[in-house]
Amino acid sequence: MNKLLSAVVLIYITLLFPSLANAQAEQQIKAEIQKRLGPNVKVKSVSAAPVTGLYEVLVGNEIFYTDVSGKYLIQGEIIELASGKNITEQRQTDLNRIKWTDLNQANAIKTVRGNGSRQLAVFSDPNCGYCKRLEKSLQQLDNVTVYTYLIPILGADSLQKSKQILCSADPYKAYIDWMINGTAPSGKTDCNTPLDKNTAFAKTYGITGTPTLFFTDGSRFPGAVQITDIEKKFSTLK
Fold first, then answer.
1. What is the DSSP letter of 106?
2. Helix crossing, 195-204 with 156-167: angle to 10°?
3. Closest by alpha carbon to 210, among 164, 167, 173, 179?
4. Burial, 126: exposed, middle or buried (Cβ in 10 Å; 0-12, 13-18, 19+)?
5. What's the rounded Cα separation, in Å, for the pair 161 and 143?
6. Which of 61, 123, 154, 190 sits 20 to 30 Å CA-CA off 203?
7. Which residues form the Disulphide bond isomerase DsbC/G N-terminal domain (predicted)?
8. Is there a cis peptide before residue 211, judged by omega within 30 degrees of 0?
9. Sign of the C-alpha dihedral, residues 48, 50, 51, 57?
């Protein structure tokens, strides 16, 4: 009798409060997935996917899918055939987006070319080869303000070079001299730098590789982005 009553109450709650029932189902699936993946993998969230019967599972910054039982983990992309829209890719873009105002510009090396009207943030490691390639491309941009946040994630030498660049009389010149001209930075390393803050920011927002670019709408572009793609992105922000 108690089981029957409980079932009736559950049905009643589901009909009257579907959002509550969905939230409970998502929490149960999350618990089941977390149990199966173990303590070394953090399941951030579980939410209903745009396909009936599927749930989105967010592990770190990676998107997976599962069924209502939580027994299966599906890796792949959802494509809406009618429109050709990559729903997974769009969702990943939204998850990777930040608030431009969250960036503390005082922690960056700032350079302005032309009228500086277009803004771009770059997270860079001085020993990152792709960062050097990107920096050469960025020299082609005009009417732009570039904020470069150093995050020494490639080793002790990256930390040393970052400190020498930031402690120099002209950090931007020291940075360009190294990244483009190959002239290694030198000098003191004992000044106050924002490296700890930049590294903490990178960890909070899942910036695990360099270079990583951000635009004023918060969108994220990882890797040595082509100059044509940067210009194309800028054109959408007007």
1. G
2. 130
3. 179
4. buried
5. 29
6. 190
7. 22-89
8. yes
9. negative
CA distance 77 to 56: 11
CA–CA dist 198, 224 (Å, integer): 20
Tokens at residue 3, please? 């089981």
pLDDT beyond 80 at 17? no
Residue entry with tokens 């579980």: 46
Q: What is the dihedral of CA 59, 61, 63, 68, to 10 degrees?
A: 30
Eight-class DSSP state of 74: B
Residue with tokens 């950090």: 171
2-96 has which CATH code? Answer: 3.10.450.70
R_g of the chain computed on alpha carbons: 23
Tokens of 148: 């470069």
Identity of the residue numbered 17: F
What's the token pair of residue 111? 């350079």
pLDDT digits (tens, 9 = 90+) for 121-145: 999 999 999 999 999 999 999 999 9
Structural domain spans, the chain = 2-96, 100-236
pLDDT in tens, 61-118: 789 999 998 889 999 999 999 999 999 988 888 888 899 999 999 999 999 999 999 9
Contact yes or no for 57/73 (Cβ under 8 A) = yes
